[in-house]
Write a structure and sequence with these properties.
Helix content is 0%, strand content 35%. The strands form two sheets. It has a four-stranded antiparallel β-sheet, with no helix packed on it. A three-stranded antiparallel β-sheet has the order 1-5-3, with no helix packed on it. The protein is an all-beta fold.
Length: 103
């Protein structure tokens, strides 16, 4: 029997990117502007979230920054003007200054 023993553990890990918040499909006509919106949640509990918006699809346009009030969700308006027909897949990220993000 041992009394007063203590153990110190050092843990390390590798974090992976979070999964997306969801999937959003849009039907568009080539060379014709289509407007749409995405519901974005605030990932901060008690303060406004000021997001920087990043999208990797050519032809998608919207505000570069977007604010979602505390404890709510808000619609992010965007427009899509694809130069050609086909099916395209990409992502849109909403990133905070602290580096946290949702997509």
């Amino acid at each position: 029997m041992t009394i007063g023993d203590s153990y110190i553990y050092e843990l390390s890990g590798i974090a992976e990117d979070p999964v997306s918040e969801g999937f959003h499909a849009m039907e568009c006509v080539a060379r014709k502007r289509t407007r749409n919106s995405i519901l974005v949640r605030n990932i901060l509990d008690s303060e406004d979230a000021k997001y920087t918006v990043e999208c990797d699809l050519l032809g998608v346009a919207g505000e570069a920054t977007f604010v979602v009030p505390a404890d709510t969700e808000a619609e992010y308006d965007m427009s899509v003007l694809m130069p050609r027909g086909g099916e395209f897949t990409g992502s849109i990220n909403f990133k905070l200054a602290s580096g946290e993000y949702i997509w």
